Amino acid sequence: MQSDLRSKVMEAFSKAEGEFISGQEMADYIGCSRTAVWKHIEDLRNDGYILEAVRRKGYRLLSIPEKVSANEIQLLLETKSLGRVIHYEESVDSTQKIAHSLANRGAVEGTLVVAEEQTTGKGRLSRSWHSPKYTGVWMSLLLRPKIPFYEAPQLTLLAAVAAAQAIERVTTLQPEIKWPNDLLLNGKKITGILTELQAESDQIHSVIIGMGINANLTPSDFPQELEEIATSLFIESGQLVSRAKLIAEVLMCFETLYDRYLIEGFTPIKALWESYAMSLGKEIKATMLNETVIGTALGITDAGVLLLEDKQGKVHSIYSADIEIPSNK
């Protein structure tokens, strides 16, 4: 019975030929209530169908599920090492956890963990990261850099630049970086990056870089608390993005920067990061655990520390904070 109803729903969308079909029209076609229609729509979304819902217009089918297989990614790869070993999962609690486990078992540098869905994805400061199925890039990359322990935060900034470059190449969009590593479009977040270390004393065993990119989410995919602060590449461009191509491009951009970083150091990466930074030269508010500083963003240090100059001329070093840019600035 359920499969028959699914078939009727898909028939209705097929007859609509890419146009909107109202909830009532759908209900009449299927022979059920509008509440039941809503449930079928949600079931489709959970299975990876991308649907647009607009009040007074109804529903429109945008795309059938596009799964990202390891083979599909590797066919598009142009890297030497990054992504040459891929662990693909349909649904996980967190790609970071899997990457940490693989690192402990001796996985090679460049190993990539990709999931269609994260049920407990997380970002900076232990915040949750919304990762619905078949809509975004949810991945973790394993590195084993031979660098001093204190330089590891530089890789977070490198990852932000790589993601920004990849998005520019795959889409027509131009993201900005909000310190230290959030990517924004039109003031809304599209990408978050989380870097975690496995280390002992001053020796780095591995660096796990987690990245979440809101690729093909529609407005209705976001929970209410994120509607005003998050967006997606699809929402901003009106075009669906090949997630496999985006992943391959992120890895290519990352490897190019990473190879250069290991030879030349952080200076060229710092210049690139600042070229994407949305806050430089602007007055911003940095809210930390015990104080709030308002000042002009001067740039970042080689350690990735943000420098703020307040109205008294004092320069503050910001290591970890929530950053706000007043809208009138």
Explain what the structure shows.
The chain is of the alpha+beta class and 329 residues long. It folds into 3 domains: 2-63, Orthogonal Bundle (Arc Repressor Mutant, subunit A); 70-275, Bira Bifunctional Protein, Domain 2 (BirA Bifunctional Protein, domain 2); 279-324, SH3 type barrels, CATH 2.30.30. Helix content is 33%, strand content 25%. The protein is built from 9 helices and 14 strands. The strands form 3 sheets. A 7-stranded mixed sheet has the order 3-4-5-9-8-7-6, sandwiched between helices. A hairpin with a 3-residue loop joins strand 1 (50-54) and strand 2. The radius of gyration is 22 Å and the shape is globular. The mean pLDDT is 89. It catalyses: biotin + L-lysyl-[protein] + ATP = N(6)-biotinyl-L-lysyl-[protein] + AMP + diphosphate + H(+). This is Bifunctional ligase/repressor BirA.
Task: List the secondary-structure elements in sequence, H or E.
Answer: HHHEEHEHEEHEEEEHHHEEEEE
Give the name of the CATH superfamily of the largest domain: Bira Bifunctional Protein, Domain 2
What distance lies between the first and last C-alpha atoms, to the nearest angstrom? 58 Å
Largest sheet: 7 strands, mixed
Mean pLDDT: 89
Q: Give the CA-based shape.
A: globular
Widest beta sheet: strand line-up: 3-4-5-9-8-7-6
Strand residue content: 15-25%
Uncertain segments of ≥5 residues (pLDDT<50)?
A: none
Q: So what's the CATH class of the largest domain?
A: Alpha Beta
User: Which radius of gyration do the C-alpha atoms yield?
Assistant: 22 Å
DSSP summary, beta strand count: 14
Percent helix, as a range, is 25-40%
How many structural domains are formed by the residues? 3
CATH names the topology of the largest domain as BirA Bifunctional Protein, domain 2
